Amino acid sequence: MPDFLIIGAQKSGTTSALHYLNQHPQIQVAPQKEVHYFDLYYSQGLSWYQQQFPKADEHTLTGEASPYYIIHPDVPRRVAADFPNIKLIALLRNPVERAISHYHHAIKEGLETLPLEEALAQEPIRLAGEAQKLEDNPNYHSYAYQHHSYVTRGYYLQQLQRWWAYFPKPQLLILHSNDLYHQPQTTLNRILDFLNLPQLTLTEFPTLNSGNYSHLSQSIQQQLQERFRPHNQRLFAALNQNWDW
């Protein structure tokens, strides 16, 4: 069973972070990177979840990364009910960059057919009422909420507040994705300190599951920056730091 979860955010370095942690001799991660137990397969039960992890001794920590966890409205309650002492890790990326990367990932995977501007405009319609349905019905799955939440996933503070309602703040490590990208060794050691494990020096830090989407119109970028600005300001106030988004 897991000792830690990387809960998100999607397209924010979760795959790379899990890969780095898996190099540690006292960590074993689930072979399948996104187990999706608490969001998609919760009805399978804890015995099913246990089967997703390698057998580990008392000196080894296990964990997984499913970046849909952070935004799913009922996952914090489910995790707290089953693993109240689990350690949680959240990587947060500039929400404009994250939204664009998410959109292009959806196009690549065949999950989106609309042009970018139309997909952003349709998001409120697609997601209307979906969060409440997910919260009310543990067996409900929302394709739109999972795959078309380009902007919504960037409203980080309201997501974190749901987690803080069930877990004390020191139990959730919040990291800036840029720190993982540009200072991977330092960031890895921060995570290992959080997990109470000895530090590990790696010689390589491959960037996994990344994409390069440089062709973005200035108008869409400015539109997104304005939409996220008040949300970012409230996030920075809550975290007592400014990431200059």
Question: Please, could you describe this protein's structure?
Answer:
The chain is of the alpha/beta class and 245 residues long. It has one domain (4-239): P-loop containing nucleotide triphosphate hydrolases (Rossmann fold, 3-Layer(aba) Sandwich), CATH 3.40.50.300. 44% of the residues lie in helices and 10% in strands. It has eleven helices and five strands; from the N terminus they run E-H-E-H-E-H-E-H-H-H-H-H-E-H-H-H. It has helices spanning 14-22, 46-50, 75-82, 95-108, 116-127, 130-136, 143-147, 156-164, 177-182, 184-194, 218-239, and strands at residues 4-8, 27-29, 61-65, 87-92, 172-176. It has a five-stranded parallel sheet, sandwiched between helices. Helix 2 (46-50) links the parallel strand 2 (27-29) and strand 3 (61-65).
What is the strand arrangement across the widest sheet?
2-3-1-4-5
Tell me the helix content.
40-55%
Low-pLDDT runs of 5+ residues are none
Element order: H for helix, E for strand: EHEHEHEHHHHHEHHH
Rounded mean pLDDT is 95
Distance between the termini: 36 Å
CATH class: Alpha Beta
Structural class: alpha/beta
Supply the number of helical segments. 11
The figure for the number of domains is 1
Just name the CATH architecture: 3-Layer(aba) Sandwich
Extended strand count: 5
Cα-atom radius of gyration: 18 Å
CATH superfamily: P-loop containing nucleotide triphosphate hydrolases
Report the CATH topology name.
Answer: Rossmann fold
Largest sheet: 5 strands, parallel
